[in-house]
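Re: [ENG-882] Designed sequences occasionally contain unexpected residues at chain ends

Forwarding the minimal case from QA. C-alpha cells:
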C-alpha cells in the first residue's frame, strides 16, 4: 500500500543550522518530526572533490506538503544548492503514520 507520506532528507553545515531548520518546520507543522545526526559527506562541487562534516535531517511529512517543505528549506538553507530529496514512506506502524498526518494538519 502506498502511503500519502514522505521523508525529506537534507544536509546542513552545522548542528545549529540543522536544529534551527528542524524547529521551524515542526513549529510550522510542515513536518511532524525531524531527526538530526552528524554525517561525513564526499561530493564534487564546482569541479573539485570536497569532503565536509555536516548534519543530516530526515523530516517526516505528508506528500501534499512537499512543495511547501522544499520552499521553506530553500528559503532558510545556507547552501547555494542544498540537498533536498523526498523518499516515499511505503509502510509503517499505523499509529505512527497516523501521528505524522495528525501532526502536519494545520
Amino acid at each position: 500500500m502506498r502511503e500519502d507520506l514522505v521523508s525529506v532528507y537534507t544536509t546542513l553545515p552545522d548542528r545549529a543550522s540543522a536544529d534551527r531548520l528542524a524547529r521551524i518546520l515542526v513549529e510550522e507543522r510542515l513536518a511532524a518530526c525531524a531527526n538530526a545526526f552528524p554525517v561525513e559527506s564526499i561530493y564534487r562541487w564546482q569541479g573539485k572533490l570536497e569532503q565536509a562534516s555536516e548534519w543530516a535531517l530526515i523530516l517526516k511529512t505528508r506528500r501534499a506538503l512537499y512543495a511547501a517543505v522544499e520552499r521553506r528549506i530553500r528559503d532558510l538553507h545556507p547552501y547555494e544548492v542544498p540537498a533536498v530529496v523526498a523518499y516515499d514512506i511505503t509502510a509503517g506502524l499505523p499509529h505512527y503514520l497516523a501521528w505524522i498526518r495528525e501532526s502536519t494538519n494545520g
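QA comment: On inspection the terminal residues look reasonable. The chain has one domain: 5-103. Proposing we downgrade this to a documentation issue.
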